[in-house]
């Protein structure tokens, strides 16, 4: 793959569930074309049931499209799933920490799966816990940590594997607004600082405006209603216009 090609590409992708013609069958994604460049932080925004999670799962290689082509770094993530070990990391809505492992042991988990030697994985895990403000809590178990701290451990676990692509499924929606805003800012800084590509699913316009350098708004069944770039130079006035445009699409 050349540097000019998108790192994630969906071409005329459709995904249906259920037996064709059955009353319970439905189309989740319909003829979607979406390309995501290296280093982008894409906020994928839409109403519940518009296909965001289905797109997420196809990019992650967890499900295969009914038709069309999905490629990640030039490869099929579903059919070549094993080749993506350590190259894609996922941050979920719930932290999904293992309760019988300490914070540092949870961060080490992905590194263990990559067969990283114990000394190196411990140092890497400690580095990321420190970066995310958790030095001194590395030996705490999840039950002893606040919701925000647990999600910081989850983010540390994702970054520790040095995956090039981060897939984030509403990772801050369960947190209070103040904690969520602080973590969003920290997450966005780390993505940019480390040259990662991130796809960020959200229901929140505020969250999309805070974290994305590109916002894609979906309509049912999942197809692009609007595709909006943002830059560091995007003013607050321009963001308010974008907010109004998104609200209009979501209200339709």
Automatic annotation (TrEMBL):
Q: Which SMART domains match?
A: AAA
- List, alphabetically, the SUPFAM superfamilies matched: P-loop containing nucleoside triphosphate hydrolases (SSF52540)
Name the Pfam families on file. ABC_tran (PF00005)
Q: Which residues form the ABC transporter domain?
A: 8-245
GO MF annotations for this entry? ATP binding; ATP hydrolysis activity
Instruction: Give the Gene3D superfamilies listed for this entry.
Output: P-loop containing nucleotide triphosphate hydrolases
The entry's keywords: ATP-binding, Nucleotide-binding, Transport
Q: Would you indicate the residue range of the signal peptide? A: none
Stored PANTHER family: ALIPHATIC SULFONATES IMPORT ATP-BINDING PROTEIN SSUB (PTHR42788:SF13), TAURINE IMPORT ATP-BINDING PROTEIN-RELATED (PTHR42788)
Give the family, as the similarity comment puts it. Answer: Belongs to the ABC transporter superfamily.
Name the job this protein performs: Involved in beta-(1-->2)glucan export. Transmembrane domains (TMD) form a pore in the inner membrane and the ATP-binding domain (NBD) is responsible for energy generation.
What is the protein named?
NitT/TauT family transport system ATP-binding protein
Gene source species = Bradyrhizobium canariense
Taxonomic lineage from the root: Bacteria, Pseudomonadati, Pseudomonadota, Alphaproteobacteria, Hyphomicrobiales
């Amino acid at each position: 793959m050349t540097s000019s090609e998108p790192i994630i590409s969906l071409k005329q992708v459709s995904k249906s569930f259920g037996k064709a013609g059955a009353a319970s069958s439905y189309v989740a994604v319909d003829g979607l074309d979406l390309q995501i460049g290296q280093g982008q932080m894409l906020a994928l925004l839409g109403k519940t049931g518009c296909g965001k999670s289905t797109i997420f799962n196809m990019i992650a290689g967890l499900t295969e499209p009914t038709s069309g082509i999905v490629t990640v770094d030039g490869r099929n993530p579903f059919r070549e799933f094993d080749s993506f070990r350590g190259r894609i990391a996922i941050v979920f809505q719930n932290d999904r920490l293992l309760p019988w492992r300490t914070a540092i042991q949870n961060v080490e988990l992905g590194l263990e799966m990559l067969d990283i030697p114990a000394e190196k994985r411990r140092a890497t895990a400690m580095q990321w816990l420190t970066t995310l403000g958790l030095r001194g809590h590395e030996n705490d178990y999840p039950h002893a940590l606040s919701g925000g701290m647990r999600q910081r451990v989850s983010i540390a676990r994702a970054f520790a594997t040095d995956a090039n692509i981060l897939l984030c499924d509403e990772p801050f929606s369960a947190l209070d607004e103040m904690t969520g805003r602080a973590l969003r800012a920290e997450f966005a800084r780390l993505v940019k600082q480390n040259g990662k590509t991130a796809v960020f699913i959200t229901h929140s316009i505020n969250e999309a405006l805070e974290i994305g350098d590109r916002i894609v708004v979906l309509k049912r069944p999942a197809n692009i209603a609007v595709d909006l770039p943002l830059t560091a130079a995007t003013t607050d006035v321009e963001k308010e216009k974008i907010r109004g445009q998104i609200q209009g699409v979501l209200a339709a």
